Amino acid sequence: MILAGGVVETGGKIIKGGEALDAMLEELELVMLEADMGRASIEEVITALRNELVGNRLRKGADLSKVVEASLKRALRTLLSAGYWDFDATVDSLLESGDLPVVIMMVGVNGTGKTTTTAKIAYRLKNKGRKVVLAASDTFRAGAIDQLEIHAERLDIRCISSQRGGDAAAIARDAIEHAKARKMDVVIVDTAGRMQNKLNLMEELRKVHRVTKPHLVLFVGDALAGNDAVEQAKEFQRMLKFDGAVLCKLDTDAKGGAALSIAHATDKPIVLAGVGQEYDDLKQFDPDWLIEEVFT
Ligand SMILES: Nc1nc2c(ncn2[C@@H]2O[C@H](COP(=O)(O)OP(=O)(O)OP(=O)(O)O)[C@@H](O)[C@H]2O)c(=O)[nH]1
Ligand SMILES: [Mg+2]
């Protein structure tokens, strides 16, 4: 990225607030806006950055624009690392604690990638030798059960469902009972996509939550939804509380700024990244990778 500032000629200068710094910060604001980061988060980050910079001494010959950009990257890295937990290590330690099965509940609005991510997580855990059961608790969308069952068949994993429409919470409970009876390790509950403002759907989700008492709730966000993903995450966090987020579709030309805003707005970390439609297209979320994406 090219910034307005040049090399500061007389070394050892104190960084002052003023036009030159403002111009640089404005350019960085644009970079973040273009990456779909929300305005509220951007403003907070920029204010913190300005406060950090003004009054600091610039090393002789240092390029102010580079110093500013490096500070911003550091601030964003801190934002993305706050409260971070490692998905695999967390599941391992839950398994070790012996409270089986470990229940993972997936939530999010329509089409963000919940079902695909459910299958990807199942694949990931199965490859580690874990015995996994899926709960088809999306009884809302026609075709949702078949979609999950096809994945289950391909992965050779049991999927508990009820073709009768049925009660999402009851299906999840059946899956947990099934897993308990067979000493299986993990139940992943796929739920229906919903608009965050539809109260009855949210109520159903809360019922699933109440009944299953999940060890982990993962909010699935769509990187392509940009700023909307942030509003969704905030509303879900308000209604349900989730432990971490999965940001899907980071393989598309989405600029990933949603990750920064979700982390900022909900105080929950992004823990996994969906990077394609294959089962192994699920990665541990890497803040540095995302920050480079935002700046290129
Ligand atoms: N490129 C890409 N596509 C993805 C990714 N994750 C999911 N998708 C696609 O996004 C679409 C929606 O994914 P689903 O898993 O069905 O989303 P959902 O949240 O379960 O949707 P509903 O059940 O309708 O709420 C599908 O076409 C997936 O293949 C990803 O990481 N990258
Ligand atoms: Mg689904």
Can you describe what's shown?
The chain has 296 residues and is an alpha/beta fold. The protein has 2 domains: 19-81, Up-down Bundle (Four Helix Bundle (Hemerythrin (Met), subunit A)), CATH 1.20.120; 87-285, P-loop containing nucleotide triphosphate hydrolases (Rossmann fold). 49% of the residues lie in helices and 14% in strands. The protein is built from 11 helices and 8 strands. The chain has an 8-stranded mixed β-sheet, sandwiched between helices. It is elongated, with a radius of gyration of 22 Å. The model is unreliable at 1-9 (pLDDT under 50). The protein binds guanosine-5'-triphosphate and magnesium ion.
> By helix and strand content, what is the structural category?
alpha/beta
> Strand tally, please?
8
* Beta-strand percentage range: 5-15%
- Estimate the global geometry from the Cα principal axes: elongated
Indicate the mean pLDDT: 90
CATH architecture of the largest domain: 3-Layer(aba) Sandwich
CATH homologous superfamily caption of the largest domain:
P-loop containing nucleotide triphosphate hydrolases
Radius of gyration, Cα only, in angstroms?
22 Å
CATH class of the largest domain: Alpha Beta
- Please trace the helix and strand order, writing H or E for each element: HHHHEHEHEHEHEHEHEEH
Bound small molecules, by name, code or SMILES, are: guanosine-5'-triphosphate, magnesium ion
